[in-house]
Design a protein that fits this description.
Blueprint (H helix, E strand, L loop, with lengths): L5 E12 L7 E3 L5 E2 L4 E8 L5 E5 L5 E6 L4 E6 L5 E10 L9 E10 L5 E2 L5 E6 L4 E4 L2 E3 L4 E7 L5 E3 L5 E4 L5 E11 L6 E11 L3
Parallel strand pairs: 11-18
Antiparallel strand pairs: 1-3, 1-9, 2-4, 4-7, 5-8, 6-7, 8-9, 10-13, 12-16, 14-17, 15-16, 17-18
Amino acid sequence: MRKLIALVIAAVVSGTASAGGTRPMLYGTLESGTEGAAYRSELTATGVTPIEWDIDGLPYGLEYTVRDNGKVCTVSGIPQEIFSGRVTVTITNGPDDESGQSYSRTMNMTVRAVRPVFAAEEGITLEFAVGVPAHFQFELTESPLEVIWSYSGNIPEGLMLDTDTGVLYGTPRRAGEYKLSVIAENANSRSRKSALNVSIIVEPQS
């Protein structure tokens, strides 16, 4: 895949523990991921079980679940926003620890936008005939998010571009040479778009 650009979780900025009792310990790091793609990362902890978890600041689309008496925490989901900030993870010993010992760690997190990538890296040439039904599917090799299709330039009379599927279809009515740019843009309005230069040659019906 957006070579996929990243959900990057940077190194720990700070860690703090409360005083007294047995301090819980936090292990692991949040792995990198991609906007619009499935994400999963696990953190583990030691301490007086059941260990309680609180994660504050996750980007929209991610959530966390805890298992094994709080020894394992899984962060998962599909990040749906561009994000740059800090995420704070806090673990607290279970009720058998009368001191209520806790430990917090703050991490930098960045979710970057992903640009759609066309399967055809260079411009392409399509040839159709007047009066003959035409059909062509533009394809992407990378785009975790759904895309919206559009074009700029001249399109042959009788042809249309489906904005949901990226299919060029119809029946050309007039011969000639046409040039246009086909554009794929991520459904997330803050994401990137890519354009592909297309030459269309419409020949007289044989």
